[in-house]
Design brief:
Helices cover 35% and strands 17% of the residues. It is built from 4 helices and 7 strands. The structure holds zinc ion. Zinc ion binds next to helix 2.
Amino acid sequence: MINDILLRDITSDDIELEEKYHQEYLKCKEQGNCPTCANFKTNNIFIEDDELTLYEDNLFRVFLERNARKSGHVIIIVKDHYEDISEMPISLAEPFHRITNITISALKEVLGALKVYLVTMCDGGPNHLHFQLIPRYEGEPHGSKVFVTPRRRIKKDMEVISSLKEYIRKATSN
Ligand SMILES: [Zn+2]
């Protein structure tokens, strides 16, 4: 059975909205600037709803991907600018591991994920270091096909999203 608790089909309104933001994204790249860094200031390059942010501190922002490959597809952005993981300082490894583990536990506990896959690519510059967490659920084939599951759109089930936030809030305040 497909777990689609946080997924819905993409509509033409979604495509129109994405296109509008994508123009700002391209403009930013053409100017040689990092769209993610710019978005932290202008908030007009990526559609980021506060309600999809699961956790944020001075190092990381953790949020649900809008164009999700799986229910509970999460992005972890490292706030400081690094092109890719090769530039990430070793000192960030421990806090990164901590928030990653906590978020994976939340996806398992709240959404029932069997496994959660971690990937980082950041290819094609300028880019900004981020990680993707992609859950796999019972009955779904394991392996790398998880990474290319066709994207759908996030369904904002606020009860479920609040449970994820609450799990992470409690675990990070311990
Ligand atoms: Zn950046």
